[in-house]
Design a protein that fits this description.
This protein is α/β, with parallel strands linked by helices. About 45% of the residues lie in helices and about 10% in strands. It contains 13 helices and seven strands. Strands 2-1-3-4 form a four-stranded parallel sheet, with helices on both faces. The chain has a three-stranded parallel sheet with strand order 6-5-7, with helices on both faces. α3 links the parallel β1 and β2. α1 (about 5-15) packs across α2 (about 30-50), α1 crosses α4 (about 95-105) and α2 crosses α5 (about 115-125). The chain starts with a helix and ends in a 13-residue tail after the last helix.
């Protein structure tokens, strides 16, 4: 069996174990294969019913289970349809956990989001066969999740599943739109300028702390975590009250943000918190603006676990409360969303690229 089918079936098996479909201890490979066919047929029908153009854009997000996030995704899809009238626009989730929980209706009404390989395969089905496919990463940094986006295209282009017409693959144009902070200079500076234009009033007399996700050192693909540091540096050239931390990057937790604030002589005052993530989901509502506060000491990595940014800064003597939590994802900010869309335009206007070497950060 081909590589991608093994991967897809493994993912489906994991989804089954989390409740996406009714699975029992007696389920076997035939059930997994049947589920694969069911999901692929569902996406095939969606694409066939929605196809209006000869070209398609596939937006790839990690995913979420929050209505605010779904609203942001829906708004983004509509913005893309308006900006790219010659393209059909679709949205996919790369996280099996988010796909499962969305289908189960966690927090919100059930919705089906399918993984990118299902959409790419549907784009190649007889009766559809888009002449151009643009895959746009909705990741913030070019790290671990972006690698998965690259690999989706590589597997599709190489017909790893073995059931796509090779003649079609030899003719279709594949393009890839890069993450928000792909470029260390132009993208970082563009995002810094966009954020300052929105929050300069708050930053005039208060700290504005952005909370990104980040990856642990062992998962810091392409050393993409450095983009958070670079963004803070770009923002501080504009105003020293801007700070950028993460929930998962070593030496850049909220405790490290506090240390940098104190080193800059900011020992009190108001702290506004804002997620530096594409959407406001679990991390934004809980890790940043939640009420968790265990009043604990930093762990061996230097992070105070189970304490939100709001509660942590408040405990340190700063004014940080519900009123200072700006719970908005970056896709909800039109000027920031436009930077992703500019990457899509660049991909469309550029040549069909070597989707490995040309899209991996150097």
């Amino acid at each position: 069996m081909k590589k991608i089918k093994f991967l897809m079936m493994a993912a489906i098996a994991m989804v089954c174990s989390m409740g996406f479909v009714a699975c029992s201890d007696d389920d076997d490979d035939d059930n997994v294969k049947n589920n694969y066919v069911v999901y692929q047929n569902a996406v095939n029908q969606t694409v066939k019913s929605q196809k209006k153009n000869s070209k398609a854009i596939l937006l790839v997000a990690f995913g979420s289970t929050w209505q605010q996030a779904y609203d942001a995704f829906d708004t983004t899809v509509e913005a893309y349809k308006s900006a790219f009238p010659g393209y059909d626009v679709y949205l996919s989730f790369s996280s099996a956990i988010c796909i499962n929980r969305a289908a189960a209706g966690e927090n919100v009404a059930p919705r089906n989001f399918y993984a990118p390989p299902f959409w790419l395969t549907a784009f190649a089905q007889e009766g559809v066969r888009y002449s151009e496919i643009v895959v746009q990463s909705l990741q913030v940094i070019p790290g671990e999740e972006y690698t998965r986006v690259i690999n989706y295209i590589k597997d599709f282009a190489n017909n790893s599943n073995g059931d796509i017409d090779d003649n079609y693959l030899s003719k279709v144009t594949l393009k890839l739109g890069v993450p928000l902070l792909q470029d260390a200079e132009s993208d970082v500076n563009a995002v810094a300028s966009a954020l300052d234009a929105i929050y300069k009033t708050q930053a005039a007399n208060s700290v504005v702390a952005f909370m990104g996700h980040g990856n642990p050192d062992s998962y810091d693909t392409y050393k993409a975590n450095v983009r958070y540091t670079q963004l803070e540096e770009a923002l501080q050239k504009i105003n020293g009250n801007y700070f950028v931390g993460t929930v998962d990057m070593m030496n850049n937790f909220k405790t490290n943000v506090l240390a940098r604030m104190k080193a800059a002589g900011i020992n009190g005052g108001t702290v506004y918190c804002h997620p530096l993530m594409s959407i406001a989901g679990d991390h934004a509502h809980n890790d940043m603006a939640g009420d968790d506060n265990d009043n604990g000491e930093p762990n061996e990595e230097g992070e105070v676990e189970d304490t939100s940014w709001k509660c942590y800064f408040a405990a340190q003597g700063y004014t940080c409360n519900d009123d200072t939590q700006i719970v908005k994802g970056l896709l909800e900010l039109p000027s920031v969303r436009q930077i992703w869309m500019n990457h899509t335009k660049d991909a469309i206007n550029g040549e069909a690229l070597d989707f490995y070497h040309s899209k991996n950060p150097e």
